Amino acid sequence: MKKISIIIIIALLLAFFASIAALAYDYDKPPEYDGYLIKMRKTEGPMVRAFELADVSEVYSPEGLYYSDSIMDIMKLVRNDAVEYIEPNYKVTLFGEVCDTYYNDTYYDEQWNLQTIETPAAWDAGFFADGIKVAIIDTGINAEHEEFENLQITQGTNVVDSSDNVKDNYGHGSFISGIIAAAKNNGKGIAGLTDKVTIIPIKCFASSIETNASYVISAIYEAVDTYGCDVINLSLGLPNNMRSFRETVDYAAEKGVLMIASVGNNASSTVMYPAGYENVVGVGSVGRDNRVSYFSQRNSSVFVVAPGENLCSIGWEGPDAYKKGGQGTSFSTAHVTAMAAVAKYYRPDITIGEFKELLKISSADLGTEGYDKSYGHGLINMAEFMRLLTTDYKYPFKDVEGTWAEESIYYCVDRGLFKGVSSTAFEPDTPMNRAMFITVLGRLSGDDVAGYTSNFKDVVPGDWYYEYVGWGAEKGIAMGKGSDLFAPYENVTREQMAVFMYRYAEVHGLLDGEENSMPMGFDDVDDISDWAREAMSWAVMSGLINGRTATELVPFGTATRAEVATILMRFINNFCE
Questions:
Q1: Mean of per-residue pLDDT scores for the chain
Q2: Average confidence (pLDDT) over 38-59
Q3: Catalytic: which of 68, 138, 262, 293?
Q4: Which of 3, 95, 439, 522 counts the highest number of beta carbons within 10 A?
């Protein structure tokens, strides 16, 4: 072995064990793990073949992810930076407890959760998700249960023993599936939330509440690439922020999959993953009194809360087994998973960000006003969720309603030109800066700005506006402040705005070729910069920009977000449609 390879191995191992020590410091006991996950830099080639011939097993080879139970095997295979990273294969835990009480009757009246989140009203409004594929990554499913007689259940997979045996030997996965999809109005047992989905059970827990992270990671890849799932339920978690786990979640999100996860049952502030990832909806629990459950985690991963105490669902022991008393954020998660399936039914292209926004604005605020770490954005409400999902709703900007610019603001928001500063605020009186205005024009154009570069010293790669400024400069639309500066965060002035729009219209062949005379009746027309006179005259004579008063144009005045929205609406109506 070359000396450089030995140094690489030592560095990897030192970093690896240092990370374990750091993680152990935060908990009462060191985190448990079973072997190691190895990420290869390449997915093909001699080193990959060497890995496959050695004592390692595949987690997901298309992404170069493998498992080894021995660090010595990894040491033998590390060559020439072939390994991108190594991390422990941590233990993952289920976040729900299924009690042992059996039922063989109709228990709709005991399903307090359905009434609390206004499910009957949502059913009346069309709360269904026919054919939407939902992966239940869990302990399996009791597919022979009477509640699933007419449910579409795709033969899933068992990633623990690489078989197709997904029979539930513990009950957790069946309980989850029952909450989501048990038949309603069949005179038996319970009513599920949406009983026309397609369930794909992927078993990664054998007969206990613990499994290895590698199995969950493999299950997510299976759900996405093998089964083409639309939604994934992850009623599980671990306190370790694993790079391989995060990359897997991001991979699924990029494919358009909505992922819902439990925040945990330790009644602590410890963030559990995958609920703690941005591309996942973390769900906490409340009881019948709408108070956060004593066991529910309280931290920034809580996005919304849902019922999670004393719930009824199906059992795993036979075709007519029912259970009550189930509790845990696992079962809260199932409610939001059903909502995700319905969202995918009505809006197949909905992103995780858009789904989160729908949840946020449709949930009922609890606890401290606004977002808090116990209740997140509040208790889910299925009736309000359906109302927003099935109508052309507008963002509930509280600072826009009833203002003079309400129509133009929503006109621009609906076209994706710019958004609110939050889900409830637009800040119409805030000035717009130069970077944002050129970005708005870039969005209006519909051009693909990827690959455009900027030569301005104050606009560098990585800035959110970098490619838009580059696009504007190359098209001759965006002017700089001096020879090499753009001043992206300076407020755009009224005359600068006129010039940007005039050049945009010129580039897109929207001008009629006639010269525009200087508008009369304004006392400050001489204040207009020489380079902006033609554009300002055009903007005023075209009815895009009005005077600030009857006698003043105020060319150096800054434009607010409301003014920009109004001027853009006029521009689009007059020149672009």
A1: 85
A2: 67
A3: 138
A4: 95
Q: Is residue 372 part of a domain?
A: no
Q: Are residues 24 and 75 in the same domain?
A: yes
Residues in the chain: 577
Beta-ladder partners of 314? 322
**Quick count: other Cβ atoms within 10 Å of Cβ 228?**
12
> Whole-angstrom Cα distance, residue 105 to residue 102?
10
Average of pLDDT values for 344-361?
90
pLDDT value of residue 496: 93
Residue 139 within any structural domain of the chain? yes
What end-to-end distance do the CA atoms of the chain give, in Å? 69
pLDDT for position 45 = 61
From 297, 327, 347, give the residue that closes a domain.
347
Q: Which of 68, 168, 172, 335 is catalytic?
A: 172
Residues 107 and 85 in one domain: no
Of residues 161 and 392, the one with the higher pLDDT is 161
Q: Which of 62, 90, 118 is the last residue of a domain?
A: 90
60 and 112 co-located in one domain: no
Same-domain check for residues 233 and 328: yes
Q: Is 344 left (phi over 0), alpha (psi -120 to 50) or beta?
A: alpha
Q: Is 5 a catalytic residue?
A: no
Give the bridge partners for 36, in sequence order.
68, 88
**Per-position b or e across 366-398, b if 16+ CB within 10 A of its CB:** bbeeeebbbbbbbbbbbbbbbebbeeeeebebe
Q: For 128-178, how does the pLDDT look when each residue is reduced to its tens digit (9 = 90+)? A: 899 999 999 999 999 999 999 989 999 999 999 999 999 998 999 999 999
542 included as an active-site residue: no
Q: Say whether 172 is catalytic.
A: yes
Distance CA 57, CA 69 (A): 9
Query: What are the phi and psi torsion angles at 157 (to 5°)?
Result: -145, 155
* 124 and 247 housed in the same domain: yes
Distance CA 436, CA 418 (A): 9
Q: Which of 68, 174, 296, 330 is catalytic?
A: 330
pLDDT bin (cut points 50, 70, 90) of residue 234 is very high
Q: How far apart are CA 396 and CA 413, in angstroms?
A: 12
The three-state (H, E, C) secondary structure of 399-448, written as one string: CCCCCCCHHHHHHHHHCCCCCCCCCCCCCCCCECEHHHHHHHHHHHHCCC
| pTM confidence score | 0.66
For residue 19, pLDDT over 80 is answered with no
CATH code of the domain in which 309 resides: 3.40.50.200
Cis peptide before 274 (omega within 30 of 0): yes
Instruction: Please report where in the chains the tokens 């307090």 appear, as a residue.
Output: 112
Residue type, 113: N
Which whole-number Å values give the CA distances from 524 to 15, 516, 549, 550, 551, in the listed order?
66, 17, 11, 11, 8
Sign of the CA dihedral 135, 140, 141, 144? positive
Closest to 231 measured CA to CA, from 273, 203, 200, 205: 200
Strand partners, 90: 33
